[in-house]
Specification:
3-stranded antiparallel sheet, single chain, alpha+beta, 7-stranded antiparallel sheet, 12 helices
Length: about 375
C-alpha cells in the first residue's frame, strides 16, 4: 500500500492511499488509484454541491505518479504487504476487474467510501476473512474533530466544515470508520494480520519511505483569522452601538442589513445541504439555530421598508434567539465553530438594539450604519 502525505491543494489536504503492483519479471509497476476525479467536467461544482461525486479507479505507471507527487512536494510511504503468491494474484485480479471501464466509477462518500476505504475493501474482497483489522487505530474522537488537524493551516476551510457538517459528524468514530483518513489506514495496516492455512502473520512485511521532501510540514498552523475577524466585528459593533446610544443617533439600515443578509445566506446554504443535497453528514445542522434563512427577507425589508409592521417583533425574536444560542453554547449536541460565537453576539446586539430603541426609519445622519 502506498500512502501519500497531505499537500497544499485543498483536495489533497487529507493525504491519499493507493495500491502499487510491482512485478519486475512481468515488467509491471502500476499504481491503482481510487481517488481520481474529472475536474474538467463543466458541471463538477454543481455536482459537488449536490453530492453527486463520481470518482473512479485509475491505473498509471508508478514512477510517473511518484514524479507528480514530488512536484507537489508530498512525501510517499510504502507498506509492502506480506501476502502469499496466491493472495497477491487474487488481489491483482480484483484490481484488474475494478479498473474495467464498466466497474471503475463509484459514488464517493467522504467518511465511508473514498480512496482509502476502497483500498481496504479491495484487499478484503480478494482475501476475505484471511485479513483481519484489529481495534487500532482507536481515534477516540468524532469525525469533526478528526478533520481539525488537517485544516489547521486552512482556517476558512475549517470554518466551512463546521458550518456545513451537521450532528452526524459529531458521532464517535469506530476503529474501522477511521480508515477514511489515509494516516489512520496506514496505522490500521501496520496492526492488521493475514492468515494462510494455519499461519497468521503481520499484514505488513516492510515499511519504507520511498520519497521524502526536505522541510516538509504536513499541517502547519495558520493564523486563526476567522476567529480574530469575528471578535473584531463584535468589538466594533459594541463601539458602534454604544456611540449611537450615547449620541441619540438612530441606527441606519445598510450595516445591519448586510449583517442579516450574510447570516441568512449561511442559513440558506445549510438548508440546501440538509434538505436538497444527498450528503447525509450535513443533516440536522444546529447552525440553523442562529443562521436563519429568513434573515435575507428581513435584510430586504430593513433596507426598503424599515417601518414595516412586524419588523421590530422579528428583530426582537432574533435577539432572543441569539441570546439562547450564546447561553447554551457548550450544551448544544453539535460542536459549533469558535468564530461563530462572536457573530452570534453581534447579531444579538444589533437586532436587540434596533428592537428596543431604533427599528424605525434611519435619519439622514444615521444612514452611515
Amino acid at each position: 500500500m502506498v500512502t501519500i502525505l497531505p499537500g497544499d491543494p485543498v483536495y489533497s489536504m487529507f493525504g491519499h492511499s493507493a495500491l502499487r503492483v510491482h512485478d519486475p519479471a512481468q515488467n509491471i509497476d502500476r499504481l491503482y488509484n481510487y481517488g481520481t476525479f474529472d475536474f474538467s467536467d463543466p458541471l463538477f461544482i454543481p455536482k459537488f454541491a449536490y453530492g453527486h461525486l463520481r470518482y473512479f479507479l485509475s491505473v498509471v505507471p508508478y514512477q510517473r505518479a511518484l514524479r507528480a507527487y514530488r512536484q507537489q512536494r508530498r512525501p510517499v510511504l510504502e507498506q509492502t504487504l506480506n501476502l502469499t503468491r496466491t493472495q497477491r494474484t487474487a488481489l491483482f485480479r480484483v484490481l484488474q476487474v475494478n479498473a474495467r471501464p464498466e466497474n471503475r466509477h463509484y459514488q464517493y462518500v467522504f467518511f465511508f467510501d473514498n480512496c482509502s476505504t476502497r483500498v481496504r475493501d479491495a484487499l478484503e474482497q480478494a482475501l476475505g476473512d484471511a485479513v483481519q483489522f484489529g481495534g487500532r487505530p482507536r481515534p477516540d474522537a468524532t469525525f469533526r474533530h478528526m478533520l481539525d488537524p488537517y485544516a489547521a493551516n486552512l482556517p476558512l476551510v475549517d470554518l466551512s466544515f463546521d458550518l456545513a457538517l451537521g450532528t452526524p459528524a459529531d458521532r464517535r468514530v469506530t476503529p474501522r470508520e477511521a480508515h477514511f483518513l489515509p494516516d489512520y489506514l496506514f496505522e490500521a495496516f501496520a496492526h492488521a494480520t493475514v492468515q494462510s492455512g494455519d499461519t497468521t502473520r503481520a499484514l505488513v512485511a516492510r515499511t519504507d519511505t520511498t520519497q521524502w521532501i526536505d522541510g516538509y510540514e504536513a499541517t502547519p498552523t495558520a493564523f486563526p483569522w476567522p476567529l480574530v475577524a469575528g471578535w473584531t466585528i463584535l468589538v466594533l459593533t459594541l463601539g458602534w452601538t454604544g456611540w449611537q446610544a450615547t449620541t441619540g443617533r438612530r441606527p441606519g439600515g445598510a450595516g445591519d442589513a448586510l449583517l442579516l443578509a450574510a447570516v441568512g445566506v449561511t442559513g440558506l446554504l445549510a438548508c440546501f445541504l440538509w434538505f436538497v443535497s444527498t450528503y447525509a453528514v450535513t443533516e440536522h445542522n444546529w447552525n440553523l439555530l442562529w443562521a436563519w434563512p429568513t434573515h435575507l427577507i428581513a435584510a430586504t425589508v430593513l433596507l426598503w421598508r424599515p417601518s414595516a409592521p412586524g419588523l421590530r417583533t422579528y428583530l426582537a425574536a432574533t435577539a432572543v434567539g441569539a441570546a439562547v444560542v450564546a447561553l447554551g453554547w457548550t450544551w448544544w449536541p453539535q460542536d459549533l465553530h469558535a468564530a461563530v460565537f462572536p457573530i452570534v453576539l453581534t447579531v444579538g446586539v444589533r437586532t436587540g438594539w434596533r428592537a428596543l430603541g431604533g427599528a424605525g426609519p434611519g435619519s439622514a445622519r444615521g444612514l452611515e450604519g
